[in-house]
């Protein structure tokens, strides 16, 4: 475990905490894409099927449980909690996310490290995570105005991806035979999706103004 | 020696 990986995991955790805080404090999920949250829940459930078969460390096991539980809790809030549910605007959240699920699974059937149940679901989760932010980015772009906590949520998620790339560069330089094409290529694609958002995030930060995305 | 690949990242 290097400092970039740890910082990446922590910003990932922070992004989820920011989202939970926003939903809890405002009893509202306005500006939050339920579809992106459901995709993340699927991502974690599919990737951590190895929770009971491969033990890496107490840290890994603990974080896996936290990610699964928090992603399910967020989906539960948006779908079931009476007050939060009312604030969900399904007319803004129209991305056809099932296409992402189908395409990711199809890709995983062809591109995987080994043709086993766990490995195919692992590859599927990597591909799906790479594109899971799309419904959220489209929703933000359609609504134009982004409230502070939602903006910070997406910012921390993007930071997590950027730090994972630094982690891979570090591991590539320090570990013999560090090659993970599936994770690294998908990770770079995923990070690139945030480029546009980051551009406007930094402009609003520099000008000390509210984050606005162009239509 | 073929090493079993373990996904050690989250």
Automatic annotation (TrEMBL), chain A:
Keywords associated with the record: Endoplasmic reticulum, ER-Golgi transport, Membrane, Protein transport, Receptor, Signal, Transmembrane, Transmembrane helix, Transport
Transmembrane stretches, start-end: 58-78, 98-115, 121-141, 153-173, 179-202
PROSITE patterns hit by this protein: ER_LUMEN_RECEPTOR_1, ER_LUMEN_RECEPTOR_2
Cell compartments where the protein resides: Endoplasmic reticulum membrane
MF terms in GO: ER retention sequence binding
GO cellular component: cis-Golgi network; endoplasmic reticulum; endoplasmic reticulum membrane
GO biological process terms, semicolon-separated: protein retention in ER lumen; protein transport; vesicle-mediated transport
Membrane topology classification: Multi-pass membrane protein
InterPro entries, per the entry: ER_ret_rcpt (IPR000133)
Region forming the signal peptide: 1-25
A Pfam family it matches: ER_lumen_recept
Family: Belongs to the ERD2 family.
Designated name of the protein: ER lumen protein-retaining receptor
Gene that encodes it: 11415903
């Amino acid at each position: 475990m290097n400092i970039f990986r740890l910082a990446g995991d922590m910003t990932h955790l922070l992004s989820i905490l920011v989202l939970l805080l926003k939903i809890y404090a405002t009893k509202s999920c306005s500006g939050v894409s339920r579809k992106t949250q459901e995709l993340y829940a699927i991502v974690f459930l599919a990737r951590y099927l190895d929770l009971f078969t491969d033990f890496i460390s107490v840290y890994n096991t603990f974080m896996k449980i936290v990610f699964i539980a928090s992603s399910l809790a967020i989906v539960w809030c948006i779908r079931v909690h009476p007050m939060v549910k009312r604030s969900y605007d399904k007319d803004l959240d129209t991305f056809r996310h099932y296409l992402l699920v189908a395409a990711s699974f199809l890709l995983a059937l062809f591109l995987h490290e080994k043709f086993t149940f766990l490995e195919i679901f692992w590859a599927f989760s990597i591909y799906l995570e790479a594109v899971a932010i799309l419904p959220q980015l489209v929703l933000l772009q359609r609504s134009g105005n982004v409230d502070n906590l939602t903006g910070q949520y997406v910012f921390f998620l993007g930071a997590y991806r950027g730090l994972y790339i630094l982690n891979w560069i570090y591991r590539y330089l320090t570990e013999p035979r560090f090659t993970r094409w599936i994770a690294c290529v998908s990770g770079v694609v995923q990070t690139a999706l945030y480029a546009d958002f980051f551009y406007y995030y930094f402009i609003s930060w520099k000008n000390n103004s509210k984050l606005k995305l162009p239509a | 020696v073929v090493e079993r690949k373990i996904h050690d990242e989250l």
